[in-house]
Amino acid sequence: MSLNRTPRANSLHIGFFGRRNSGKSSLINAFTGQETVLVSEYAGTTTDPVYKSMEIYPIGPCVLIDTAGFDDEGPVGALRVKKTREAMEKTDLAIFVLEGSPLLEVEKEWLSEFKKKQIPVIPVLNKADLIRAPEAVCSYLEDSLGMKPIVVSSRTKNGLEQIITALVRNLPEDYDTKTITGGIVKDGELVLLVMPQDIQAPKGRLILPQVQTLRELLDKKCLVLCVTADKLEQALNALSSPPAVIITDSQVFKTVYEKKPAESKLTSFSVLFAAYKGDLNYYVKSAKAIDSLTENSKVLIAEACTHVPLDGDIGREKIPKLLREKVGKKITVELVKGNDFPQDLTGYDLIIHCGGCMFNRKYLLSRIERAARQGIPMTNYGVAIAHLTGILDKISLN
User: Fold this and answer.
1) CB neighbours (10 Å) of residue 92?
2) How far apart are the C-alpha atoms of 378 and 287, rounded to whole Å?
């Protein structure tokens, strides 16, 4: 195992859950080999979830999530439990840390919630060095859980390798198999990337979806040409044959569509991420709700990153402008960013989410599931812009 700086959004998220003082933080420190999180003999030391990126062989890049005890009490304790529930929505695999005492109702409730959310659970009996008869306790817990806990000691590090083996065995089916470009781009093809470098791009760098897509295309041994929107025609004229695929920033979707060769497939970074991180079918189906909006409608725009508002911002300005041009100036458009996302969505007629490059797939899917459960259509930036500009049925979705 080694620490790394792999982007969290593309890493397997492993959450450590349990009662206060069950040894979650100590277990994470044993995993990382560092004093990664604060450890104390007092219950309730961990408040907000702590996220630590690291490499675990043979899994690859992972994020370990240390959470507050879900049995916390009082007004502040309730806030800590709320944060722990939010961390659950980002969790791909759960390490359920147990002590030697009988299971409490709160533990049974959380186990039921993990099952409902289809999150694999690995039960761990911690502090084995302090338990008089750990195997007997383990046997009792196995009868209660229907699963045999792994017996570990954070102090001696006994049992850590068994946890890693269990993690590998319980990896989600689609882990490390989904790709950004999916079946749209084949190995070795010529791909043209249209990447406007507006003020939203970090100074001297590309935005994350562009970087991740470019890296994947290089891994596929594709021939890649990158241009800004104003150089599109010049780039096409310089090529001896049309590109197999053109991937564009959604903001210039219509412009690129009007100039692209008939032979070239067209998609956008945001549409690719709709399938990679979210539920493309639900996004496309939900985009039709745009046609039913009126000036009395209410739209929520959700943005994963939290940057300072900028002129020409796609979520704050460009999409609202397109909506008002289509529906009317009085339509209500609200924006949330980062981890802020309402539990109750019933007041909205449509949700338009960004590509979600800053979130892991589990978390974005949990938002889609919440919207679907409440009967609220939810689409994303690229799909919405393609629909608003009349080209959704003309672009490549898969």
Assistant:
1) 23
2) 7
Amino acid found at 58:
P
Superfamily of domain 2-169: P-loop containing nucleotide triphosphate hydrolases (3.40.50.300)
- Rounded CA gap, 325 and 295, in Å? 11
CATH-assigned architecture of domain 279-394: 3-Layer(aba) Sandwich (3.40)
Euclidean distance between CA atoms 387 and 290, whole angstroms: 8
How far apart (Å, rounded) are the C-alpha atoms in residues 388 and 365?
A: 24
> Can you give the residue ranges of every domain in the chain?
2-169, 190-272, 279-394
In contact, 362 and 90? CB cutoff 8 Å: yes
Please name the residues in contact with 89: beta carbons below 8 A apart, sequence gap of 6 or more. 117, 362, 363, 366
CATH topology identical between 2-169 and 190-272: yes
CA dist 38 to 48, 97, 218, Å? 12, 17, 41
Tokens of 246: 């053109």
Provide the CATH topology of domain 190-272.
Rossmann fold (3.40.50)
Q: Which two tokens stand for residue 321?
A: 């402008």
Describe the crossing of helices 381-388 and 319-327 by its angle, rounded to 10 degrees: 40
DSSP letter for 22, please: S
Q: Which residues pair with 13 in a beta bridge?
A: 63
Collapsing DSSP states into helix, strand and coil, what is residue 198?
A: coil
89 touches 363 (CB < 8 A): yes
Q: How many CB atoms lie within 10 A of CB 154?
A: 24
Measured distance CA(185)–CA(102) in Å, rounded: 54
Mean pLDDT by 10 residues, the chain (398 residues): 52 94 88 64 62 89 92 88 93 92 88 94 89 81 88 90 94 83 95 81 78 95 96 96 97 95 97 94 97 98 78 84 96 94 97 93 95 98 96 92
Render 209-262 in DSSP notation, one character per residue.
Answer: HHHHHHHHHHHTT-EEEEE-GGGHHHHHHH-SS--SEEEE-GGGHHHHHHHS-T
